[in-house]
Amino acid sequence: MKVLLLKDVYKLGRAGDVKRVADGYGRNFLIPHGMAVLATAGALKQAEHIRLRANEQRAILNKEMDAIAKKLEGVVLTFAAKASETGKLYGSVTSQMIAEALQKKTEVEVQRRQVDMQPLRNLGTYKISIRLTVDLIPHISVIVHREGETPVAEEPEAPAVVE
Predict the structure, then answer these.
(1) Per-residue pLDDT tens digits for 32-86
(2) % helix, strand, coil for the chain, step of 5
(3) Cys-Cys with 26: which of 1, 68, 142, 161 at CB 3.0–4.6 Å?
């Protein structure tokens, strides 16, 4: 099924793009949520208008979010956790925990869905992306250390970004 995107859809495309998607994804999610319409001849005539309007809105949103991105860029969060001798955590550091810690440290409200990562299950330093908008993605460092020990700042061992 071909659809014309009305809004930016993460990992699919930007507003005004014509994309081929699975029938169920288009019929059950994109179209009911107002993110897309069927790519008919009439809709395709509006594609350029939709694209221009979305670019204007995206520019305004990026301007607003730029100050927040500067606040978040380079923030270092530390988490103490119980871990085995091999460095594997008993439990994990989740995106919800990172979002809450960011809110306490920077007073910027970030939803857990904006934190691009898999749960951290090992000790170490990780570089994590915070997806504010399609274009603005600041990076923070997360240090996971053993309870009772002082955190050691080191180079991030592996990005925990899911793309």
Answers:
(1) 999 999 999 888 888 888 889 988 988 898 888 888 888 888 899 999 999 999 9
(2) 35, 30, 40
(3) 1
Is 151:138 a contact under the CB 8 Å cutoff? no
Residues in the chain: 163
Burial (Cβ within 10 Å: 0-12, 13-18, ≥19) of residue 29: middle
Q: What's the pLDDT band for 152 if we cut at 50, 70, 90?
A: low
The mean pLDDT of the chain is: 88
Q: Please check whether residue 43 is in contact with residue 4, taking contact to mean a CB–CB distance below 8 angstroms.
A: yes
58: amino acid identity, one letter: R
Give dist(CA 124, CA 116) in Å, integer: 17
Check the CA dihedral 140-144-148-152 and report its sign.
negative
Q: Which residue has the tokens 């992306």?
A: 129
Residue type, 114: Q
- 3-state secondary structure (DSSP) of residue 113: helix
The CA distance from 8 to 159, in Å, is 25
What strands, in cross-sheet order, belong to the sheet with 36-38? Answer: 18-20, 2-5, 36-38
Query: What is the reported pTM?
Result: 0.74
